[in-house]
Each structure stands twice: as structure tokens, then as C-alpha cells.
UniProtKB/TrEMBL annotation:
Top-rank lineage group of the source organism: Bacteria
Name assigned to this protein: PadR family transcriptional regulator
Domain Transcription regulator PadR N-terminal: 21-96
UniProt xrefs under SUPFAM superfamilies: Winged helix' DNA-binding domain (SSF46785)
Length: 126
């Protein structure tokens, strides 16, 4: 079965590490260290993924067809040849969108519960 024919919902829910790696790769391909830095920045320092978690997640994401290793390389004078660059696949994009929709639906339910009334749920201020 081709990867793009798979049901993205079958992989949900994603772990926070996997979802944040997908988010880090949403705009451009990156190498491992830059993915860790992007996650730290995106989460305002609240989520830090170490090398073990990152590369274990990447291994599974490669196997699941969410990401692929990029063949393109930056200018060798500006890069370390040991770095591996990763990018989202079309299926990875579908899974990221499905997870975002799942989280949005969950947040909609949270907003209806009295336990959370008065709590700012503006994610920019979280």
C-alpha cells in the first residue's frame, strides 16, 4: 500500500515529541540539532527534546513514512558532512494536519467545561 493511501488518523494521537518534530519540519528541511532548537523556540523553552528522544522519534517517523532524509545538501563550506537533513513527506503533512485537528477538537471541549472557566486558553500566552 502506498504511504499516501494510508489513514493519517491511524497514527494518532502523536507523542508530543513527534508532533513537535513535524511542526519543526513544516516550513523547511532541517538537521537534528536545528530541529531541537526549533522545538525549544516554538515552545518558548517549555519543551526540550534531547538527542536520544529526537533520534529515536526520527527512526520511527522514517519507518512510518512521515519524514524522509533529504538528498540535497547545503554548500559543504557552510555545513558539516555528518549532518542528516530531514523533510516532511506528503503523508507526514497529512498526519500533522490530522493531529492539529484532533488537538483543536479537544480544546473545543475544554472550553465548555466549568473547570476551565476564567482560564486563559490563548495558546500564545500559555
Amino acid at each position: 500500500m502506498a504511504t499516501d493511501e494510508r489513514n493519517p488518523d491511524a497514527l494518532l494521537p502523536l507523542t508530543p515529541a513527534v508532533f513537535h518534530i513535524l511542526l519543526a519540519l513544516a516550513d523547511s528541511e532541517q538537521h537534528g540539532y536545528s530541529i531541537m532548537q526549533e522545538i525549544k523556540q516554538q515552545s518558548q523553552g517549555k519543551l526540550r527534546i534531547g538527542p536520544t528522544t529526537l533520534y529515536r522519534s526520527i527512526k520511527h517517523m522514517l519507518a512510518d513514512g512521515l519524514i524522509t532524509e533529504s538528498e540535497e545538501r547545503p554548500d559543504p563550506r557552510e555545513d558539516d558532512e555528518r549532518r542528516r537533513y530531514y523533510r516532511l513527506t506528503a503523508f507526514g503533512q497529512q498526519v500533522a494536519r490530522a493531529e492539529a485537528a484532533r488537538l483543536s477538537a479537544t480544546l473545543s471541549v475544554v472550553r465548555t467545561k466549568s473547570l476551565f472557566h476564567g482560564l486563559s486558553l490563548d495558546i500564545t500566552n500559555a
